[in-house]
Amino acid sequence: MGETSSLLGPADVRELAERLGIRPTKTLGQNFVIDANTVRRIVRAAGLSPDDVVIEVGPGLGSLTLGLLAEARRVVAVEIDATLAAELPATAAARAPGRAERLEVVHADAMKITDLPGPGPTALVANLPYNVAVPVVLHLLATLPSLRSALVMVQAEVADRMVAPPGGRIYGVPSVKLAWFGEARRAGAVGRAVFWPAPNVDSGLVAFTRREPPPTTATREQVFAVIDAAFGQRRKTLRAALAGWAGSPAAAEEALRAAGVDPRARGEALDVAAFARIAEYGPSVRAVDPEAP
Description:
The chain has helices spanning about 10-20, 35-45, 65-70, 80-95, 135-145, 155-165, 175-180, 220-230, 240, 245, 250-260, 270-280, 285-290; strands at about 30-35, 55, 75-80, 105, 125, 150-155, 180-190, 195, 205-210. It is an alpha/beta fold.
């Protein structure tokens, strides 16, 4: 996978951080990857082609960025930290001089991105801060229709929730909303020692492939409103949990029965297609047109 010498090792990461006066912060969820083999593994698991345009969120000091530059046509690195964003092009120029022109750094909050410069990104590959991993992935999938795949490193518990199938205790909002966009699966575990500073939790890789959403006349926003309501009170039956969304328990039951769903069921029993069916019978007309009867 390209030149191994270009990747950052533990001493390189610490030297860069010290020179820049960077103290990794819990607020930004900064845990820098210091193991080149882990970078190679992530890039390999991402299955990139030479035509791919990669968006990397939170590149930090550039450990993963350098690995991605060796494989993709272009890497758009979105970094919220101004100091790190300013330094990344210099790191690429110094350690991957033949590929540095493939990199574009965007100093921004990934949660607020509405578009990106250049061709649309086809793949998301990132070591994501644990506290924003799911919102970032969902936001980018909704905002960037060109994204066809993703490979993200997240907290192991978050990874389990992202890929959970219906029927289990950890199945919930992340699982269902990701399923709207496509298929998520575990792609391996990552130990703590590959990071600096070492986190107090294990990490996991989640691979994602975009698929068409379930066929429905409801919009994504309408379906997601049902999902949020169903899991907002996940111990309640859907008849009770969806009462606020529908306007009353009776209206919720009517919508559920019309969608072919048992009103006594709980949200964790339903797949995304069932939530889409329910949304078709919800108060969508009134939400769109306040004057509607």
